[in-house]
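INFO worker-7 received task bundle
INFO bundle size: 2
INFO processing item 0
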Amino acid sequence: MIDLENFLKQYNTKKAKDLLHQDPQFLALQDCRNHIAPKDENLFLFLVIQCALVSYQIAWSGEQWRTEFGQKVQKNWDILLDIWKNNQNNTDRRFNFLKTSKNNKRIYNIKKSRIEKINTILQTEKNFFQFQNKLEELNNLLAKTMKTTLQSKTIVFATKMFGYACTIITWKDTIYPMSINIPIDSRIKKIYLLNTKNTQANETEICKYFQNLSQTFQISPLDLDTILRLDYWKIIKQN
């Protein structure tokens, strides 16, 4: 296995962004955006956030789930847009989608409560595009709305996917702040273990390890996550 620090020497932020454009999750969202009309940037961004906040304990891969989500949004865009414009609630539609989902119907009752929580944000905020260059503010708002920590895996993941969606809308790469942590999932934990041999570390220690790597190589934790998932993880699977 290649040592992670030696592996990262070949990367900078630009190369990380180039890799991002190859991410199947990015491509699934891009395909969705390309096939909906009339386009509404704020609804698209909100749906991407909704999707990310229930993207855990999925049945198959995140890539397959993102593809299924994109296809569902395309199919029902007119209905979703009408609900959005009339300030109606899409909780029941999102819940029914989870119950019949091929890739994400585990613990759907718990996930419904997450949809209900995030939908409360619409009582005070519908202009999500304003957060394009204010991702720390968005991360804070999501954590407050979902009543969890700023470092919560689904919160920082939702912020990352929001960045993907902004890039798709604007055709300009989203700049992720160094202050937003990497999403600590099972793959990240395994990468940490393989490189440190520390079996006793908690999530705070793991997060600090990757934060230090980000500072060393001047690559944001969310961009680092893309490198690890799409490139470094392939090396691990081959060994």
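INFO item 0 finished
INFO processing item 1
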Amino acid sequence: MSTDENINETEESTVTEAPAPEVVEQVAAEPAENAAGNIVASVLALRESNPKVFYGGLGGIVLVLALLVGGGSDSKLVAHQSKPIVVGQNYVLKGANAYDPNATIRLVGVPGSMAAYDDTEEADRDGSCKHIAEGTPVKLIQSQDAYGKKDVFAEVEMTSGECEGRRGWALSVNLQ
């Protein structure tokens, strides 16, 4: 064979016909089907080999979907609604966070010193009108703003009971 013949044979062998469009679509779809089949197979294998991880992941997906679907802005926040207080009005002491029927409201001499006492000692609970029972009627003498909020503290005067006429400061949320 001569060199020219080798070149002609090489040129003839490199020239191929283009495949039909149907064949191209079928070949392109096969990797996608194989990938989906591989994912399903690996998930099923995970369920068999490590069920805790499988069901934990499934629960996580359900939780995320539940938060996305059900976490709309229609949900209502439960919080204490403070009512405006008026100097000179009569109120009743009621603990905003107390559920015990024997709960008391702490009155202090200076507004803002609510956490400045040691609650472990009970010697200060008797006498001197520092711990007032819930339901005690009081009259609002004055209020004080604090922490950027209006009427946080309230000076009250007891209008009945053994401490009648005594004054002290309480949180305004404790006035009902």
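INFO item 1 finished
INFO post-check item 1: Helices lie at 3-14, 21-49, 51-70.
INFO post-check item 1: The radius of gyration is 40 Å.
INFO worker-7 idle
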